Amino acid sequence: MSPRFEPARLAALPFHVPLLAGVPISLCIAILGLPDIGHGHSLSYRTLFFCTFLAWLAPTAALQRLLWRRGWAAWAMTPAMLAATYLMSALNNVLGQTLSIHLGRYDHYKWHDILAGMDGCWLPLIAFCATHAVVAYHAALAAERARAAEALVAQRDAELRALRYQLQPHFLFNTLNAVSALVTTGRDRDANRMIVQLADLLRATLATGQAHEHALADELALTESYLEIEKARLGERLRIALDVGPGILDAQVPCLLLQPLVENAVRHGIAPAAQGGALALKIAARGDVLHIALTNDVLAADAATGSHRVGLRNVAERLARLYGERHRFLARHEAGRSYTVDIELPLRRDASTATATAWIRAA
């Protein structure tokens, strides 16, 4: 449906625009007068009515805009503008009879003819009012659509930020609980190491700023920092395999895309198992699509539940808002005891390669 707006919005059109809208009507009047050239005083009358029509354009537009600003609805404006333009046409007839007296065709005013034969001016004025209304409506409609689009972008931006900010407390609480568990079990060195790594990770997370996307290299660096924290907690129970294809470190991905997926895999798949498990992350480019696959071991009991965790649900919502139909997100249990998240994103490049080089050195 088209956006709805108050009549006052129609008066927001610059005043010169409706005057320009009267140009085609003026040209039609001028063309209709061409056959009268050389036929006595007919051209004089045509010229008079043409000039008076031009003179009435500005007052007519001003009156129409005044009624819009006062909130008049179309059902009230129509008879009002018809009456106003009818009065203007009557005044034109007075001027026409004045010209007739001046030319010697009449010796006095014929007042009974003043309200007759107004099609020469009244109809063009009505056409001008209709043109003015159509032009103003479409201009207001375009402005309203632009405002609606801006509001939609602002709403989408706010939703994305809200979803992103949900991740940070969730991850922070889990990590602090892990630190508390290490302290309780007497693993003070591991707890101190985890706190340092947590500070580094939070500093790197804040460094992403307000952007919704950054280079894959930056995302891998954040994910690697998080995995170091989990390694401090789980030790050899967490086995990690990273496979990143060539030439894609500058690909643009959502900020904090991988960390919640990895956290979900570790917290709900690998950590509950006494023997731990493996986590495999594979990223590759296929044409203009960036493919991300994350697979982790999971207990058979968890595999039967099939429940989406907070991180998975959050990532799915963010991808839907960022890419719409241009992405694919699939989380599923594989045969046996593994869980896989498959993501496909449009492949877009970042001109900067500094971050990519930094991650290669760190890796």
Task: Describe what you observe in this structure.
Helix content is 60%, strand content 13%. It is α+β, with helices and mostly antiparallel strands and 363 residues long. The protein has a five-stranded mixed sheet with strand order 2-4-5-7-6, covered by helices on one side. Strands 1-3 form a two-stranded antiparallel ribbon. A hairpin with a 3-residue loop joins β6 and β7. The longest helix is centred in the middle third of the chain and has 63 residues, at 122-184. The protein is rod-shaped, with a radius of gyration of 37 Å. The model is unreliable at 303-308 and 353-358 (pLDDT under 50).
What order do the helices and strands follow? Answer: HHHHHHEHEEHEEHHEEH
Mean pLDDT: 77
The dominant shape is: rod-shaped
Q: What is the CA-atom radius of gyration, in angstroms? A: 37 Å
Distance between the termini: 53 Å
User: Which strand order do you get reading across the main beta sheet?
Assistant: 2-4-5-7-6
- Oligomeric category: single chain
User: How many helices?
Assistant: 11
Strand content: 5-15%
What attributes characterize this protein structure?
single chain, 363 residues, alpha+beta, 13% strand
